[in-house]
Model the fold of this input.
Amino acid sequence: MGSTPSRDTGYWPERLAGAAPVELATDTPRLTAREYRRAVEEVSLGGGAAALLGPDDTSGGDGTAAALLTAFAVVLHRHTAVAHPVIGLDHRTPGDPAPTAGPLPVRVDVEPDLTFAEEVERTARTAGRDLRHAAELPATDLVPAGFGLVRVVLLAPGAGPDPDAEPDLDLSLERRDGVAVLCLGFNASLFARATAAWMLRHLVTLLTEAARRPELPLRDLRLLDEPGPPPLWAPPTPPGYRPLAPAGPQESLPQRLSAVAAEHADLPALSGAGGDYSYAALDRVTTVLAHRLRRSAGPGTRLALLCEHDVDAVLGVWAALKSGAAYVPLDPRMPDGRLSRILASADVTAIACSPALAGRACVLAKGRQVVPLYPVGPTADAPAPAPVAAGSPAYLLFTSGSTGRPKAVEQTHHNVLEHALAYADRIRLGPGDRLPLLARFTFDAAVMDLFGALLSGASLHVVDPLLPAPALRERLAAVGTTVVHCTPTLFRHLVGDLPESGPPTPQLATVRMVVLGGEEAGRQDFRRFLAAFPPDSALVNGLGPTECTVALQHLAGRADLTGAVLPVGHPANGVRVRLLDPDGHPTEVYGELEIVSDRVAAGYWRQPEATARAFGTGPDGVRFHRTGDLVRRRPDGSLVFQGRKDRQLKVRGHRLEPGEIEAALRAHPTVAQAALIGDERSGGDRLLAYVTAATPFPPDVEQLTSYLAGILPDYAVPWRITVLDGFPVGPTGKLDRCALPLPEELPRSGDDAPRTPVEQSVADIWCRVLGVTAVGVNASFMVSGGDSLRVLEMLSAVRDEFGVDIPLIDFLKSPTVAAVTRAIGEHVEQEQSC
Done:
């Protein structure tokens, strides 16, 4: 691995295509890591693992460097899914002087189909070429601002790593009395010691496996032992709580409701603007309505329900289930066109509706029968409902916000019952609990409360989630709320105007548990929870897609105050999970979440191709669902949500997860909420950020941009940051990203517009190179969408037009139109003076 440079300027553009620095998830947000504190974890290697790294009597030759690089790159690949990591290599054998220019860049191409030996051989070849061309690589491409470098150090005996370097991680191999010792240095301001020790164990396990099974491809080499059992789930248990009886193999939802109603006949079951119902009344009224519905729908049919967010929706659901039909909820806020597509796709037989919506139902019906859910009198006859098979469909829930053909998840009575009982057991629901129904019945979030509450003896109260925050808190207090289940967006609305410290809010004093789901929740949400709710209450964060309602849950603890986001936890009872790499092969630390459970939905209604892509049955006969959610495993085995596969952005060849940049923005003291999207007008190469204020004063956009530039790589700094009074919210209560306004491409103020012919000419060059229509004279080239290749293209165009050769290092100090114009002016003055 020599280091003689070549001046072939075409080497790195092709070499860096698709490559990326390793951006590891940290235990502590970078924003709070005020200083670099290096610590070291060590482990001795023996047997075959040590033999893979070279003979015992050397300090590391080229083969050792390639083997160590390969092992480290594979571990980093499993942790980040970066297939072409750029790693710094500090290769010093005995007698070599200490480096003066820092580690040299090496790109390692991880090919999962190769064996370890084959990958080492290829790494030795490619790393040698990289080192010969190292002098040609601009430093900005190797070390993004704010991200430490991952590097490998091969040291002579007794030598230490460069004390002035500040990499996130540095891996060194030392020989001590003939024993190979791996030393993982880490920034203790970012990583817990347990995390560093965990990664070091991964390296040892990988090397051990590669030595023991040399014929295995890299993807099949283990990093982890089998994960141990999840920690004991121990939320606060209310006095008198009794576990619910498990679901019988042939038990349907109506059967369980009737049993609960018989046991708790006089307890309150349901309330809302449309009336109050005891369990006995709920059971009787829904049975009467079911007999009415059987004249138009029944077993084997689909029944649409058009209801406002009130008790009619709950009554309609149970009436449809008792009739034997699968219900298809319709949100009256949706346009007729979408509702008509849902009706056609579901092939519904009839539409049941709130009496006030009968007219609209008739317009939508197009020949289908309309059945208004008129009130049931106290003397109405309620004969026993006909039995319903446990395996029959319970509902079709259509995905929200989709375009074109709607997609519906089909779920059975038995699976819904299992999910409801698992949810009720996890959060200890019982007759003493009062739950607000905040989610509309058209969404999966409502399933957890609608069924979990009414099958456990708790009372359900339909509450408008869009009330102003003070009125919403008063409403929760009026019903004596004990459990709140909502999205993080709605949670922030509920408590966002409350002080971040002080005594708990009186209106929330009866709440014993808050359950979050549907979006990423962070430590700021946990802090808000601790300030607003009683000290003996609990916060649960989780993940449960429509295809498998209750999948993962995490009981938050004080340790979560140091992390950027709250974990989504461990699998619920009856659920297993797998992580998959981009090719669909099992992996261990980072990948797409696959849920394995008998409770997974049957598939997507009448969409066999979409069902085949997302669902399947394993060799053990258990169904699985590929969620499209990306997750990362922590050392304690819990999972952290890392975004959606379909939300990942690619900017200048770098793959980005918007959630990471949003978390960085939310950590700023002036920002309450943050959202990030790609600007489709630029082909997604520019990032647009949106924030709301956390104080009475709006965030300073220039300050935020400067702040992000200090902690993120330049390609991750948004092109525009827009301050909004509030975020648009979709029907599910989640952020509606499609409704975020696109900012203008023009400069933000007249002072930022080109003022002279030279400034205008330079700005025109920038626009041509960056693919934008206008640029401000003080805007950063990098923030506006530039990268090292575009910098070279731009400087070349300036040289061709003005005859001025601006050094790259000078431009990077102040990458603006104004600075380039000044450099041109200084050159002209020098020419004239000569």
Remarks:
- The chain has a mean pLDDT of 84.
